[in-house]
Predict the structure.
Amino acid sequence: MTQNIKKSIEVIVFASDKPISAEQIAHHLGIEDSSEVDKLIEKLNIEYSEQGRTFCIRKVAGGYKFATDRQFYHLVEKLYEEKKDVNLTASALEVLAIIAYHQPITRPKVDAIRGVNSQYHIKNLLEVKLVKITGRMKTFGRPLLYATSDKFLEFFGLNVIEDLPNLHQIRELMATDIAEPQNMKEDQLELIVEDSDE
C-alpha cells in the first residue's frame, strides 16, 4: 500500500509544471495529514540515494519538484548554458542580492546601498519575475516596496528566503570559487548582506 502511495507521489510531482506542496499532494491522494507526504518523500529520496539515482525530489519555493542530484549540476549547466531564459549581469545580480537580503525594500534604499541608480535593473528583474512589488511604504511619497518572488526561490533552488547563505557562508564560497564574481570588495559584500535585518 505504502509503495503504491509513493509511486502516486512520484507521478504527481513529475507531472506538475511547478513545485507542488505536500498539502496539494495529500489532497490529490486523499491523505488527511500532509506530514505523511513529507515522510514518504524523505523515504523516496533515501531509496534514490541507495539505488545511485541521479535525481531526487527537492523542496523549493514551498513545494516539491524533481531535481538533478547536486553532484551532477555541472553537466546540466553545460547542457543548458546557451538556453538560459534569464541572463543577469553582475549589476543586476547585485541589485537582486540587495533586494533578497533587505526585503521589503524601496528603490531609494537600493540606490543608497549601491551608490548608483538601480531603476533599470529593478525594471528588468520585475520583467523576468524574480522580483515583485509587495506594496508601498507608509512614508512621504509612498515609494514602492520590492521583494523576491517564488520564481526567485525556484531559480536559485531555495525553499524559503531564510535558506539564503549568511555572510560567513558567502565568504567561504568565494574563497573556494576559482572565479569570484567581479572581485567583489569586502565592504560591498557587508553592505549587501550584513545589515539585512534592519
The first strand starts at residue 55 and ends at 60. Residues 2-76 form a domain with the Arc Repressor Mutant, subunit A fold (CATH 1.10.10.10).
